[in-house]
Amino acid sequence: MGINHLISPLGPIAPAGEHQSSRDTFKSMSTGDKFEKAVAIMARLRAPGGCPWDREQTFDTIKRYTLEETYEVLEAIDNRDWPELTGELGDLLLQVLFYAEMAQEEGRFSIDDVLDALSDKLIRRHPHVFGDTTAANSAQVLKNWEALKAEERKQGKQTKTVADHAADGVPEPLLTGVSSKMPALIEAHKLGSKAGQVGFDWPEMNGLFEKLAEETVELQENVMELPEEVRNGKSKISPAGDLHQRLEDEMGDLFFVLVNIARHLSIDPESALRKANRKFRRRFGWLEHELHKQGRRPEQATLDEMESLWQQAKSLEKKGLEKNGQ
Prior knowledge:
Layout: E1 7-8, E2 11-12, H1 19-27, H2 31-46, H3 52-56, H4 59-78, H5 82-105, H6 111-124, H7 127-130, H8 138-157, H9 160-167, H10 184-197, H11 205-223, H12 228-231, H13 242-264, H14 269-293, H15 303-323
Antiparallel strand pairs: 1-2
Helix pairs in contact: 2-5, 4-5, 10-13, 11-13, 14-15
């Protein structure tokens, strides 16, 4: 039997041209059967005679798609686009199936191992649900969660560096579990949260805003050292100089304080910035459209004209929100 009729545990996968009947069959399946079918389809794509592109992929080549799909899921959530979210979650699940299939081909692990690890972790880290531990609120849940993760790392799941610390009797570094490979805003949020759990945090919001003002002044002082032609936008600062390095440091400090303000306000900084980006796209797009109706492009308008259109875009947006009761 050819690859187009590869047998899965649930029967043959329909060849090309039978997609409608295949979809109807999928709808009548149980959730477990649907999952097994998806696993079998992924295996078929990677098998000899399958998809040339899928067969060429490796763990390293797929990584960027995993990141892209994650952001598309977040965008669908922000847009409250539930049909789109359905598809995007499927695309994200595909990444898991892809990694698991490649790992199984190399004899490393299988999708069953992934599911076993997930179930074990969910039960192990929720003793207040599946065990005798109690947790009165979400804060206590998070505290228990961190303690359980720390204990797991002590039992051999930590990196070699942390294991060396443990062997020497040195406590595990608090920030070990925060990956430095995640987006910087998320990393900053997690670092501040971790430190805050042991009391290294601003005790009240006023302290954060005082720190924000302090960091702003320090950045402004460094900006004043720039040549006048750079400050007025007529030339660019060299990225190789000492001043540029100091400006980058001060800018980083400013971002870090802003992220911690967001944390204290229970705001996801990454999500907040994405929404601000979309708002800018929307308003600038309206500005461009209005200029196009006048037979002009943005570069042919003055800053005052564009600012006036920008304010109109904001006003129209506000009226639209009020009309919709938001």
